[in-house]
Write a structure and sequence with these properties.
heterodimer, A: 5-stranded antiparallel sheet, 57% strand, B: 115 residues, mainly beta, 7-stranded mixed sheet, 4-stranded antiparallel sheet, 11 strands, globular
Amino acid sequence: GQNIDQPTEMTATEGAIVQINCTYQTSGFNGLFWYQQHAGEAPTFLSYNVLDGLEEKGRFSSFLSRSKGYSYLLLKELQMKDSASYLCAVLDSNYQLIWGAGTKLIIKP
Amino acid sequence: ETGVTQTPRHLVMGMTNKKSLKCEQHLGHNAMYWYKQSAKKPLELMFVYNFKEQTENNSVPSRFSPECPNSSHLFLHLHTLQPEDSALYLCASSQDSSGAYNEQFFGPGTRLTVL
């Protein structure tokens, strides 16, 4: 079967750095997405990786290793507004998105 | 504002009621999706429409009936639901439903409670 694993919940301190991991086993791979979802709101796109390596976008970076079936989302200089759920999703061989259950990130002052 | 709107935002219904959820996208996309989001579970893809044609139906019970009259509008008709159907129902759109890069834009969702 297809599976996406990510931690259920993480806690970090304002101003710090946090890394949210995602591992996947899917039938084929056509890219990996990270989305952010604040409570009661729509998921919004953060990043897309299809090649190995690190993609940096401001305070957020996303890393991919296809051989290890592994990705992480790195958030720097954490702000209170970064408290949200972070969803990892993989595009499989049929171009269907397979979603993880999300990681709830709690930022403390 | 994401360009994808959903109404109503909240809905409470009895098991014998019939109701409909509406989604509208203003992004010029050709694909639209219905997802179910339950607490602490992955997003569950329910239906996909590409150029108004249904391309996916992931074993969804017949008490959920989608309708896509045009590329901008998507409905989910609900009939004789069960309490376990209570969840957040998200609509999304993308340029199309195939291809290697296919960012989906989500609406804010409808919080459905079935009594």
